[in-house]
Structures are given as C-alpha cells and as structure tokens.
C-alpha cells in the first residue's frame, strides 16, 4: 500500500508539474498566473473548516487547532494575503531552486504526504492535512482533466508557431480574451483593441463579468460548469440536471447571510480575502 501511494504521488506531482510547464510556456501571453488564480478561487469555494482546522466546526476558526495544511499556511509570510499563500504552496519548485528549496516546495504541494496534491484534495472535498482522507481515483482524474490550461485553450505549444497561434483559445478563452468591464463597446473597436483592453483587467473580474453566459446547448453557465468540474468549452461535458439544480440551490444558500453554511467556503470575515480573491467577490 505504501509503495502504491508513493507511485501515485510521483504520478500526481508529475502531472501537476507538466501542467505548470505547459502554462509556463504559454506565459508569453500571461496565462500561468490566470490558471493559478482560477485554481485558488475554486479552492476558496470548495474549502471547509476542516481544510485547515482540526474538526469542521465554525467555532474552530479562533482556536489554535490547525491541521498540517493550516499550520503550513500559517507559517508563510503573514503580510501575504491568504490567496497568495495558498497559491505559493501549490506553485512547486522552479529550475533555479536549490536542492533544499526544491524538496521543501515539493513537500508543500502534498503536505500530508498521501500522494495527492493539496489543491486536488480541496476540490475533491477531502482533507489536505489528513493522510487517511484520500479522494477516489475517478474524482482525482476528473479534477486533473478540468483544472489545467484547457480551461481556455484548445491546445498548447503547437510546433512551429508562436503566441496565440501556438496556443489557440477555445470558445471560453476567446470570450474572456475580449471581455472588458465596460458596459458598451465602441462599435468600431477592433478585436486587437478589445484584447488589449481585456488584458488590463484581472482574469477573475472578466469571469465575473460573463458569469451568466452559457455555451450553446448548455443549461449551465461556463462558470457553473467549471465549479462542477466540467470543461467550460466542451459542449458534451455538461452536469446532470439534478446536479445543476442541487448546485444552484446550495450556491443561493451560501449567498444568504441567514442560510449559509459557515463551515463551507472561505468567503467570510474570519478570513483575509484581500488580493486577487476580491476580483471574484461576486462570482457566486
């Protein structure tokens, strides 16, 4: 069992590293940071008290009872926002890191050592600080399939091409690439002008601006599909009607101060949601 866990850990972290490398290559058009922020905002919605605390009771917010994941977040620079600390733990080593730094960053990516990266466990509603709480394999594979560069890109790093030609957008990426926060676009503005304007707007603000838009043939919005671990631009990859109805009911409850479950999500005054999470404050 331990050997199997080690093999899966290597496989999971290799998959994660490959995703980062792909998006790093796309970074000439600024996409690595986009993926990182989308991943963290998804984690902020999926998190529970037990993600960081010992137990899943709102009363533990003020207690020192932190699990391994919560303890490690607390050790990172306190001047950094919570979102930036979460992102830093998932970022992984760079080519310039020393052996010691590389080992530490690899350990940070899977703080409980169970073979599954923290971010996958959070999105799978498992506990990243408990090695005995491991998501099912099919859930892990679903999350790995969705939360990567293909959220916005059809392909990456096509040989012999550069820029967007090498990393063509899918329909969701194309929509975001021309989305601005202006209510009215100038009728004579070119695609290039719209894209230049969009690039100056945070990616989460752009997603918030189009949060009610739906792909053709889908009853779910692009954002709802992503929250439900479905590929936004894949018209065949849709949530079930029952699953969508359940999600919308839960999301409506979480928007209500009286009905919300205080043990779900990190959108709460008890947490510091400054930084880029503010760009997604009204996403759902």
Question: What are its keywords?
Answer:
284 residues; mainly alpha; 14 helices; 48% helix; 0% strand; disordered N terminus
Task: Give the SSE map.
Blueprint: H1 2-25, H2 32-46, H3 49-52, H4 68-75, H5 82-91, H6 99-109, H7 118-123, H8 137-146, H9 163-166, H10 171-177, H11 191-199, H12 203-209, H13 222-227, H14 241-255
Write a structural description:
With 284 residues, the chain is mainly α. The protein has a domain at 2-168. Helix content is 48%, strand content 0%. Residues 1-10, 17-22 and 24-29 have low confidence and may be disordered.
Order of helices and strands: HHHHHHHHHHHHHH
Rounded to an integer, what's the Rg over CA atoms? Answer: 19 Å
Main β-sheet, in a few words? Answer: none
CA-based shape: globular
Distance between the termini: 40 Å
Q: What's the count of strands?
A: 0
Name the helicity range.
Answer: 40-55%
Q: Which secondary-structure class do the elements indicate?
A: mainly alpha
Count of alpha and pi helical runs: 14
The overall pLDDT average reads 85
Strand content: under 5%
**Low-confidence blocks of residues:** 1-10, 17-22, 24-29
Give a concise summary.
The chain is mainly α.
């Amino acid at each position: 069992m331990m050997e199997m866990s080690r093999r899966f850990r290597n496989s999971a972290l290799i998959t994660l590293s490959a995703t980062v490398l792909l998006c790093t290559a796309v970074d000439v058009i600024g996409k690595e940071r986009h993926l990182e922020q989308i991943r963290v905002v998804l984690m902020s919605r999926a998190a529970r008290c037990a993600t960081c605390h010992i137990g899943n009771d709102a009363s533990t917010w003020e207690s020192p009872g932190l699990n391994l994941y919560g303890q490690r977040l607390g050790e990172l620079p306190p001047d950094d926002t919570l979102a930036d600390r979460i992102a830093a733990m998932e970022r992984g080593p760079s080519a310039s890191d020393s052996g010691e730094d590389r080992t530490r960053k690899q350990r940070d990516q899977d703080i409980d050592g169970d073979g599954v990266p923290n971010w996958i466990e959070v999105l799978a509603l498992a506990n990243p600080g408990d090695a005995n709480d491991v998501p099912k394999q099919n859930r892990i594979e679903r999350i790995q399939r969705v939360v990567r560069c293909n959220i916005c890109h059809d392909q990456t790093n096509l040989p012999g091409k550069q820029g967007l030609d090498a990393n063509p957008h899918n329909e969701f990426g194309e929509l975001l690439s021309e989305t601005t926060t202006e209510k009215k676009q100038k009728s004579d503005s070119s695609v290039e002008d719209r894209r230049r304007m969009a690039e100056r707007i945070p990616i989460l603000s752009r997603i918030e601006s189009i949060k009610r838009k739906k792909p053709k043939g889908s009853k779910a919005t692009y954002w709802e599909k992503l929250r439900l671990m479905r590929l936004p631009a894949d018209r065949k990859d849709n949530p079930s009607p029952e699953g969508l109805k359940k999600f919308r009911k839960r999301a409506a409850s979480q928007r209500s101060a009286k009905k919300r479950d205080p043990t779900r999500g990190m959108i709460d005054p008890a947490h510091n949601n400054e930084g880029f999470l503010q760009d997604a404050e009204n996403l759902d």
